[in-house]
Amino acid sequence: MKIHTKVVHAGDRKKPGPHIPVTTPVHTASSYFYESMEQLDRVFGQEEKGFSYARYENPSTAALEELVAALEGGHGALACASGMAAIHIALITALADRRKSVVAAGALYGASVSLLLQVLEPSGVAVRFVDVCDLDALRAAVAEARPGCLLIETISNPLLRVPQMDRVAEIANEAGAALVVDNTFATPLILRPLEQGANFAVHSATKYLAGHGDVLGGVVVSDERHFATLRALSRTLGPVMGPFESYLTMRGVKTFALRMERQCANACRVASWLASHPRVSRVHFPASAEHPDAATIRRLFPPNLFGAIVSFELKDAGRNEVFRFMDALNMIVRATSLGDVHSMMLYPVMSSHREISPKHRERMGISDGLVRLSVGIEAPEDIIEDLEQALAS
Ligand SMILES: Cc1ncc(COP(=O)(O)O)c(C=O)c1O
């Protein structure tokens, strides 16, 4: 071979030896070579398992998918480039052979609301929002809208309401609708939606699963009935997670259960400290006896795991006081996102709920003094000390 050919081919496309790497490598190849056309034909025809093209499946991503499917107890999983890509493909899979109508929780993540109103509704999907913690209201909405799909979150943002997921699943099932659950806040350590009767569990893997603030990703886990459609739509649309993000997420997941346990324990300590602080008028946290869904939480959550988000209201505070308080934080990071190893604080009025009118926000119970803290794995004393000095300032 001449040098211009050697540079392209020498050393590449070796069969792996008898060794098995102890962790899954980053497989960057965009396509796969087989020794015979017969075999490639069988792989393309999906008669034989194998990789052919990275938009279809990639070994690094497939390993992560197997891992998250096992955590959620699903038939299979699809890893996506973002949580929003995961929610989008879960919804269109759920609606593929059903009525083009969605009944969704009234308190969804902002971009999920935008997805419903700015993408799905203009393409002919009817959308209706309802308080999914009120089962009578949900039943009435389902009877009227006759949806093909219900979309809820395990723990809502930022007020941390918890719907009775098993009952919501019964209502969906009786109506012939699929149930899609965004399980980002609860994670499979606390609740596994498919075990509660849901058809899809979706994640922003950007959050607790990856956990280190260095990945954007999403995962959809589905039951057996929907998985072939999910994969087929993904092969066409290509919302897939890249191999490097899959590697980082898989590496993150290995410590996810340990991190989450620690974050949940830290959040309990921080929430009870905040509850007795004179400058805090209200704490929203699922462990609280006054939580509006306390009975559901006792019934569905494992003991001592309540999630690791604490929302709280500063007494008599508006935007200026909240800005002063947040600017005074030394260690807690002022940034959007959640679920990372470091504690982070966000001001919903300025970020996640910015587009919602003040009147509507007030109806939702989101005041100008409300902040949301994602509690990290740091020493709880340090988190509390930072909050204390910032509150004092
Ligand atoms: C509950 C929830 N679902 C979905 C998303 C979207 O995830 P991503 O930003 O990875 O697209 C977020 C992001 O904050 C979220 O908080």
Task: Describe this entry's structure for a reader.
With 393 residues, the chain is α/β, with parallel strands linked by helices. Helices cover 40% and strands 14% of the residues. It has 15 helices and 12 strands. It has helices at residues 3-9, 37-44, 59-72, 83-95, 110-120, 135-145, 165-174, 187-190, 224-237, 243-253, 256-275, 294-300, 319-327, 358-364, 380-392; strands at 76-80, 101-105, 126-130, 149-153, 178-182, 200-204, 218-222, 280-284, 309-314, 333-334, 344-346, 370-374. Strands 1-7-6-5-4-2-3 form a 7-stranded mixed beta sheet, with helices on both faces. A 5-stranded mixed beta sheet has the order 8-9-12-11-10, covered by helices on one side. Helix 5 links the parallel strand 2 and strand 3 (126-130). Helix 4 packs across helix 9 (224-237). The protein is globular. The mean pLDDT is 96. The site of pyridoxal-5'-phosphate has 14 residues, from helix 4.
Listing every helix as H and every strand as E from the N terminus to the C terminus, the arrangement reads: HHHEHEHEHEHEHEEHHHEHEHEEHEH
Compute the number of strand runs: 12
What structural class do helix, strand and pairing data support?
Answer: alpha/beta
Q: Which ligands does the model contain, each kind named once? A: pyridoxal-5'-phosphate
> Which percent range describes the beta-strand content?
5-15%
Instruction: Please mark out the parts with pLDDT under 50 across 5 or more consecutive residues, or reply none.
Output: none
The biggest sheet, with number of strands, parallel, antiparallel or mixed sense and barrel status, is: 7 strands, mixed
- Rg measurement, Å: 23 Å
Shape: globular
Helix content: 40-55%
This entry's quaternary arrangement is single chain
State the helix count.
15
Q: Order the strands across the largest sheet as they lie in space.
A: 1-7-6-5-4-2-3
Mean pLDDT equals 96
The end-to-end distance, rounded to whole angstroms, is 73 Å
